[in-house]
Amino acid sequence: MPASTELLARARTGDRDAFAELVRPHRRELHVHCYRMLGSLQDAEDVLQETLLAAWVGLGGFEGRSSVRTWLYRIATNRCLNALRATGRRRPAAEPLPVPPPEPSALGEVLWLQPFPDLLLDDLPDHDPGPEARYESREAISLAFVTAVQLLPPNQRAALLLRDVLGYRAREAADLLGVTEDTVTSALKRARATLDRTHRTGPPAPEPGSAAERELLDRFVEAFVELDVDALVAMMTDDAWVRMPPLPFEYRGTDAIRRFFSALDAHRRGIARMLPVRANRQPGWGEYRRDRTTGRLHLAGIETVALAGDRIREITRFDTATAPYFGLPRSLDG
């Protein structure tokens, strides 16, 4: 008897340890799936726990017509859809900028975005996506991709992730969502059209940890801490973005980015240290500001960059809500 069959049989008798072992190989990928659906690391963790509880309670109704993995994806996807459609979903609190910002290039529609630590991606199971997948796993976890997905209505979001990221066939995706194949196909067509307009790609980034990546990131940190706006702008692609969710302000292009960094120059003078992290398979840092009274350094935000060749194409600054997931301390000795 296969190990999974034995675990399922034991779990059906009320063995919680067997159930935990049965779902353990799927926990992390389900967490990532919920994150792609919701754009929030913390909301994704909440929905993952709801999914596992629902699976435990509903285990008696699992008839084995699909794999345990597919059954769990059905529960997780529908729980995410419920969360997206729920009224009164909490709105993230946004700390205002310390100075009036310059006129933005746009007011961003995506306010829910949080970073996903690479520390939580390292133990993803090595599942090959299904034959219908269009995105590689690294692209499908990038902040640019997750941001673009958040612009989709819930049903289109689910269809795109099930079909183009996980690679389920149309019939399988329809069964997971409890709709017809025509409904999935129509939603997917509209979702792809939106992503074609909003999801930007560019030259490949340097390999993580490579000499080329280290050289570019070292120059970025030096310019960022030293407030060298000219050097920062010189490293950006012509169509680069600066974003700050949950604040709606977005700055696109080197002229707008120059105005933004120049306007915040005085506020940024307290930044004293950048601790490296990785989020969404991208480089990032915990940003620490020095307290002028105590001399201690306090975590002020999490900064990430997206690289395109030897340039930076996107800077995203997040608040400190997800700091514990990155192992970032709230304060450091000076």
Automatic annotation (TrEMBL):
Q: Which PROSITE patterns match?
A: SIGMA70_ECF
Q: Which InterPro entries match?
A: NTF2-like_dom_sf (IPR032710), RNA_pol_sigma-70-like (IPR039425), RNA_pol_sigma-70_dom (IPR014284), RNA_pol_sigma-G_actinobac (IPR014305), RNA_pol_sigma70_ECF_CS (IPR000838), RNA_pol_sigma70_r2 (IPR007627), RNA_pol_sigma70_r4_t2 (IPR013249), RNA_pol_sigma_r2 (IPR013325)
Superkingdom assignment: Bacteria
Q: Which residues form the RNA polymerase sigma-70 region domain?
A: 22-89
Where the record annotates domain RNA polymerase sigma factor 70 region 4 type, the positions are 144-195
The record places domain SnoaL-like at: 218-314
Any Pfam family hit? Sigma70_r2
Key words, A-Z: DNA-binding, Nucleotidyltransferase, Sigma factor, Transcription, Transcription regulation, Transferase
- What GO molecular function annotations does the UniProt record carry, in alphabetical order? DNA-directed RNA polymerase activity
**Protein family according to the UniProt entry:** Belongs to the sigma-70 factor family. ECF subfamily.
Please describe the quaternary structure of this protein.
Answer: Interacts transiently with the RNA polymerase catalytic core formed by RpoA, RpoB, RpoC and RpoZ (2 alpha, 1 beta, 1 beta' and 1 omega subunit) to form the RNA polymerase holoenzyme that can initiate transcription.
**NCBIfam families with a match to the protein in the record:** PRK08241.1, sigma70-ECF, SigX5
- Name-wise, this protein is RNA polymerase sigma factor
Q: Which organism is it from?
A: Streptacidiphilus jeojiensis
